[in-house]
Structures are given as structure tokens and as C-alpha cells.
Design a protein that fits this description.
Helices cover about 20% and strands about 30% of the residues. It contains 8 helices and 19 strands.
């Protein structure tokens, strides 16, 4: 597991890491050179790229654009440019939130204070590597003279990490559905078929959109069950079931290969509706029904959880 301590890597170390790179990726962005796969001095896999839009302020602090930094480790970012709006970072759901000029951020569901507040400059959000390290809770290396940035794949804290088939079932910490029938839950979920997917979607009542975990949260809330906002936290509720025990209304969690230091961390969630199918939201056409036992999702199924 990586540490939270940011490390400023010397030029020689960065050059060594570059020589150890295995492949080049197609990721490019204006003002950058292509990203390469690299390693940090501690041996962790890292997203590495050369940032040409960085700058050093009058106090000697080095700043880099946040969006390409997030993209280098496979995250997407939604930047709300309205007054007081949050920038949201994650994969299928939001894992990190911050606002320009505020040191207070949300990192994996917890409020954290950064030493340097992010700033907006030339239409982009900039952040120091130290602050980025604390935000993502991972190791960040940088070399101001060359512009090379190394960001280790973030690890989720041990208290949130799932351990696959050998994990001990988590205790039930939510209200029971009591008299609510599981078929009613499925019928309600199906009412949203075709509702557009949007990364970091706000409340459905306001946006008429969902991301994966806001969809499951919205459906279960109808029946008096309050799920956490993130898929990885929803996976910490209820009891673990296997495929043979899977029942209508159970949650199914999927890995996002290569997204974290461990592929045993949930990155996507859906609701089982019976007959080998589940309902979820993902890209186009938004809320949809997919096969669980064949195709793409059968290859990335992580675990199944009963919260009813």
C-alpha cells in the first residue's frame, strides 16, 4: 500500500523510472507529452506524464493542472465553474470533491484540510503536488525542471478495502425494508430505464440524471433504506452472499480493473432483478438492464451484498 507522504523525486530517480516504463499510452492533451506507465521510488505503479502548463509561484510553490493529473491515473473530472461549485473526481461515482480557493476538500467520504488551497488559473484548477497527494491519499512525485509528474494508483484505506471471496460479511447497519416487497423495488427501479447517466450527478429531483451509486441510493431510499453515496461504501453494508444465494434486490459490485492498487475495491454497483439480470446505469443509454452471467460484466463481478 502506498503512503500519504508526498515525495519530491530527484531528476535522476525520474529518469530511472522512465527507463523502467513498459508501454506508452495514447493519452495526450494540449500542453503535455504522451503519458507513460512508470513507478514511484517505493515501487508503486504510477501514472506518469510531462506537464508543460505547470508554474512556480512567488513563494516557490510548484502548481500543476488538476484535470490532467487525475486523468493520468484513469479518473474523470467534472469541473463546476459556477460560483461556489465543486470539482468532482472519480470513476463511475465521485470519490473526491474540492473548490478553488478553499483548503477544505472531501476525500473518500471524509473532510480533509489541504495545506495549500487549490486555485483557478486560466480557466483550469491548479493544485500543488503536496495537496494532490493529500487529496488522493497516495504518493505523488514531481520534477519542476522537466515537468514529469508521477502519481501512484490510489489505495483505499484498510477500513474500506474489500478482500474478495474471503472477506468477512459486514454487519447490517441500515433500516430493514420490512413489508416492502422486492418486486415493488424492481418495478420502481425499472421506471427509470433510459434516464441519462452523468458522472457525479446531483440529486435526481434536480438533475434528472444518475451515476451508478446515486441510482441505487435513490431506489432504496424509496423503501426507507439509506445507502451511502459511494459504491465502495455501499459494499460495506449488509451481508455477503454468493451467486447461488443471490436474490432479487441484492446489490452487485464490480471491480474497475487497474483503477486502484487492488482490484478488490468496488468501482460500480447495480441491483439484481432476477433471471440472471441486473439494473444499473453506465454510459449510454443510462439506466439499463444487463446480463450478469455473460458478457463484460460477468468478467468483472466482484461480490454481492444483501442489504434488505
Amino acid at each position: 500500500m502506498t503512503t500519504n507522504k508526498p515525495i519530491k523525486i530527484a531528476a535522476a530517480a525520474l529518469l530511472t523510472a522512465a527507463l523502467l516504463s513498459s508501454t506508452a499510452c495514447s493519452y495526450t492533451k494540449q500542453g503535455q507529452t504522451p503519458k507513460v506507465n512508470s513507478i514511484t521510488p517505493s515501487g508503486s505503479n504510477a501514472g506518469s506524464y510531462y506537464e508543460k502548463s505547470s508554474f512556480t509561484d512567488k513563494n516557490g510553490l510548484y502548481w500543476i493542472p488538476l484535470k490532467p493529473a487525475a486523468a493520468s491515473i484513469g479518473y474523470r473530472m467534472k469541473d463546476d465553474t459556477s460560483s461556489g461549485g465543486y470539482a468532482k473526481i472519480g470513476y463511475t461515482d465521485v470519490m473526491y470533491m474540492l473548490r478553488p480557493n478553499s483548503p477544505h476538500v472531501f476525500s473518500l467520504g471524509r473532510k480533509v484540510k489541504l495545506q495549500e488551497a487549490p486555485m483557478r488559473r486560466n480557466g483550469q484548477i491548479y493544485i500543488t503536488p503536496n495537496a494532490l497527494s493529500k487529496l488522493l491519499q497516495t504518493e505523488v512525485g514531481w520534477n519542476p525542471s522537466t515537468g514529469e509528474i508521477n502519481i501512484a494508483s490510489p489505495a483505499v484505506r484498510e477500513d474500506h478495502t474489500m478482500t474478495g471471496k474471503t472477506a468477512t460479511p459486514k454487519p447490517l447497519r441500515i433500516q430493514s425494508l420490512s413489508a416492502a416487497d422486492s418486486s415493488e423495488l424492481v418495478a420502481y427501479a425499472k421506471k427509470f430505464l433510459g434516464v441519462p447517466y452523468e458522472f457525479g450527478a446531483g440529486p435526481y429531483e434536480e438533475t434528472k440524471r444518475f451515476d451508478c451509486s446515486s441510482f441505487t441510493r435513490h431506489v432504496f431510499k424509496k423503501f426507507g433504506v439509506n445507502l451511502p453515496r459511494l459504491a465502495k461504501d455501499q459494499a460495506n453494508l449488509g451481508t455477503r452472499v454468493n451467486r447461488g444465494e443471490l436474490a432479487v434486490g441484492d446489490l452487485i459490485f464490480f471491480t474497475v480493473p487497474g483503477r486502484f492498487t487492488s482490484d478488490a475495491i468496488p468501482g460500480h454497483v447495480g441491483i439484481y432483478i432476477g433471471d440472471g439480470k441486473f439494473i444499473h446505469t453506465w454510459g449510454d443509454p443510462g439506466v439499463q438492464i444487463s446480463e450478469l452471467d455473460s458478457g463484460y460484466w460477468s468478467k468483472v463481478t466482484l461480490n454481492m451484498q444483501r442489504v434488505l
